[in-house]
Specification:
11 strands, alpha/beta, about 35% helix
């Protein structure tokens, strides 16, 4: 979800006194007001894609077996998957599960050997073997940098798989699972320009034997493209190892955090604060979480990228880049697993999340930066925890998750034990009318591009869950939220199960609480 900026704070990426503005994909964490995020979680309150937090709307994963492009996946961005943007609701954005790329039975063998060679070279940390088949010059040198970045990351699994060759373009998947972070392997999709028997009619192309024997046949590496030649945003490309010439990586319990080498000082300053936020969120969730269903489980760790360039921030995992949401300070993106769980071959699940945070946001630059980093960290990580509860089956139709539940949960987790701060945030209601209703469930309304309204939506969403916890206990809140991620169509039944009241009665009681807490509401 996205995380919005705090009220009155300058937008990320814009000069001003520091202190910011937050999809599953949810929109990012909006700045106050700020809307996980593309991954999408919502703003805290800056909209991520929608704002801070998750990305709006989780699209269904692509159907298995196609060479397909992207499915409207982020509908999955279901607010729940990830968090982004400070200042707004964290949107959890998830991108549709990538289609499996089955190699052609005819002529596939040499390319299989090429991709197997990359897999073996990374496992052996053999740089020369890794770059051997990339064309000399810029392509080979760039892949040296990619290799040096990849060896810094703790992998549970890392392998390359070849797909179809068409007009000299080879589809390739990098199937990977970050140790301690991902529940299942996910796949970043590449498109290589290659030389081979089917790539030219000049008669000078390498033979299959030469390809298999290590010839320099990969002339260019990029993300998958559409018919207009633009890099698509459903292939989880480019990842940090693709974008940065040199990665700095820090590993802690339940956390893998990274940045460009030039931003290493920021990473080193923030990493232990983020690690504590990770431990806080996981401990709180485990204390209140419902029993696992057996099909999906909450995340056990987090993958975080810190970035100060807004252009780079918007490009990470989004092909040629996404439109800028100035209200978003951070985002959590949930990615579909590369293949279904062995226990249920008809089920598509979220394999893991990726969190990106804008370090020009006031939460990072203000005097109370430790509290700011803690808050946005807790917010986006909360999106990531529940993102992996999401699944998709052939019988699924549309994503009906309520944006207010996703972002409200992320902010509820962010401000645990900070009741005074939570009450102060309610002051934003003096800037916007309060109609006595729960915040919008529709992402288009929740992630308003009006900063005060978005901030109010985040604040009210969190307050509704705090009120639920005060009356019925934290376990009821966690059970309600988990239910929204696993069975979003049962929203009304879930409210009643948590509170013993129909939605209208709960809403009325909560509205009375808000009016008694904030005097002089409009």
């Amino acid at each position: 979800m996205t995380y919005p900026p705090p009220p009155g704070v300058p937008d990320p990426g814009h000069p001003a006194p520091p202190f910011p503005q937050p999809p599953f994909p949810q929109p990012g964490y909006p700045q106050q007001p700020y809307a996980q995020q593309p991954y999408v979680q919502q703003p805290y309150p800056a909209q991520q894609f929608p704002p801070y937090g998750e990305q709006p709307g989780l699209r269904p994963p692509p159907r298995r077996g196609g060479a397909g492009r992207k499915l409207a996946c982020l509908g999955v961005v279901v607010v729940l998957l990830l968090g982004a943007g400070v200042g707004g609701v964290v949107l959890l954005r998830t991108i549709g599960r990538q289609p499996r790329m089955e190699a052609l039975k005819s002529g596939a063998e040499p390319w299989v050997k090429v991709t197997e060679g990359l897999t073996q070279a990374l496992a052996a940390k053999d740089e020369e073997a890794f770059v051997k088949q990339f064309a000399a010059g810029p392509t080979k040198e760039k892949q040296r940098k990619v290799f040096r970045n990849l060896v810094k990351i703790p992998w549970e699994k890392a392998s390359w798989e070849s797909g179809l060759v068409r007009d000299g373009r080879l589809s390739v998947k990098f199937v990977h699972q970050v140790k301690g972070v991902d529940s299942y392997p996910i796949a970043e999709r590449y498109e290589w320009k290659v030389l081979g028997p089917d790539s030219t009619s000049s008669g000078k192309a390498p033979t299959e034997a030469a390809i298999a024997d290590g010839a320099e046949v990969i002339t260019e590496v990029g993300g998958t493209t559409n018919g207009e030649g633009k890099t698509m945003d459903d292939g989880y490309y480019p990842a940090p190892w693709d974008l940065y010439d040199e990665l700095s990586v820090q590993v802690r319990d339940h956390l893998v955090a990274m940045s460009d080498k030039a931003q290493e000082a920021e990473l080193n300053r923030d990493v232990d604060v983020m690690a504590r936020a990770a431990a806080d969120d996981l401990a709180a969730w485990r204390k209140c979480a419902p029993a696992p269903t057996g099909k999906t489980a909450a995340a056990a760790g987090f993958f975080v990228v810190l970035e100060r360039s807004r252009d780079v921030y918007n490009k990470l995992y989004h092909g040629d880049g996404r439109p800028n949401d100035s209200l978003e300070a951070g985002v959590n993106m949930g990615f579909w697993a590369d293949s279904p769980p062995e226990s249920d071959p008809d089920l598509t699940v979220i394999g893991g999340s990726r969190i990106v945070m804008d370090t020009t946001d006031g939460r990072f630059t203000g005097k109370q930066w430790q509290e700011g980093v803690t808050n946005i960290g807790r917010h986006e990580m909360a999106h990531a925890i529940v993102a992996t509860l999401t699944s998709w089956s052939e019988s699924s139709t549309t994503d009906t998750r309520k944006a207010w539940v996703s972002e409200g949960f992320a902010e509820y987790m962010a401000l645990r034990g900070k009741e005074d701060r939570a009450r102060q945030d309610l002051a934003v209601l003096k800037q916007v009318p309060f109609d006595g209703k729960l915040p919008p469930g529709e992402r288009s309304s929740f992630y308003s591009y009006d900063a005060a309204r978005r901030s109010a939506n985040y604040t009210l969403a969190a307050d509704a869950l705090r009120y639920m916890a005060s009356k019925y206990g934290d376990a009821k809140v966690c059970g309600f939220v988990a239910g929204q991620y696993t069975r979003p169509e049962e929203y009304e039944q879930q409210i009643t199960a948590a509170t013993g009241q129909p939605v209208e009665e709960f809403q009325s009681a909560w509205a009375a609480h808000v009016r008694s807490t904030v005097q002089g509401l409009r």
